[in-house]
Amino acid sequence: MKLPLVELHLHIEGTLEPELLFELAERNAVTLPWASLAELRAQYDFTDLQSFLDLYYRALDVLRERVDFTDLTCAYLARARTAGVRHAEIFFDPQAHTSRGVPLRTALAGVRDALERSVDEWGISTQLIVTFLRDRPADEALQILREILAGEIPIDGIGLDSAEVDYPPELFTEVFDLARAHGLRLVAHAGEEGPPDYVWQALDLLGVERVDHGIRSLEDEALLDRLVRDRIPLTVCPFSNVRLRVIDTLADHPIVRMIDRGLLVCINSDDPAYFGGYIDDNLAALDAEFGLGPDRLALLARNGIEASFLTPAAKAALADEVETWLATQREAAGPATAIRSS
Ligand code: ADE
Ligand code: ZN
Fold first, then answer.
1. How does the cofactor attach, per the note (predicted)?
2. What are phi and psi of 130, to 5 degrees?
């Protein structure tokens, strides 16, 4: 039995593996600036968030047709299943496609085609969160949200991503107000590279229910008190933090400190094709580095379930499965461990 997981911080565009990228380039006759897979992979040496985003947006140029978005999403869901993912709330960046001439409806329909097959084919329930690029004008985000609402295009929530510093959440208050008025769920990247003040703004001005990354909240005790008190989830992405040099090495990752502080943290992969692994790889690496053990792995899984936008009944069913997994782990470890950890 695999530990049942939910994934809450996953950019579908960040699951574009080099092999699929080359396949799509050929299919769509797109000339790539990289001569080989090796040459492309050699670019995956990022100095900060912006250096990653430059490559991420460039690579997306191979996504042209509806079926390309379906193939991308299916590839993620198939891999997520092997990781034990049972529910995924997936980010999608409309402006990364509309800005290069791909219609919103084409891209979204392609993603939806895959999501509609997800429960039957991979046993994964899904939700779709449209993320707006904070380094583009808020008016553009507002226009796209209005188009989605007017067209009755089914989405579950909105988020905020892309280059963070100098693009504070307060710029997007009107966008989030409109989304809230239409019953959409609200999340935002904050405190990844940006200061704790951006996390405060995301909470108090945008009214987000969940903070993506939020790792720099650790610099502000009053903010930590607030996050703990209100059980605001932080979707933490360890491989991403290392690759984007938010922290130096995995050994320096504050995940244990965050757990011990009582924060509602869960583990996610962000852009797994670029950062060296999927959600299971992130968890395995943390377990190897910090000796998390079954109890803290189960806690992280439970946190993800609590942080999700699933119904209470679906949350309870998945949480039961986590307890079953934990019991089998304790059994396998033998009676001494079972007594010690109980
Ligand atoms: N878009 C894709 N990945 C991102 C990240 N880690 N931070 C901000 N925007 C992103
Ligand atoms: Zn992200």
1. Binds 1 zinc ion per subunit.
2. -80, 125
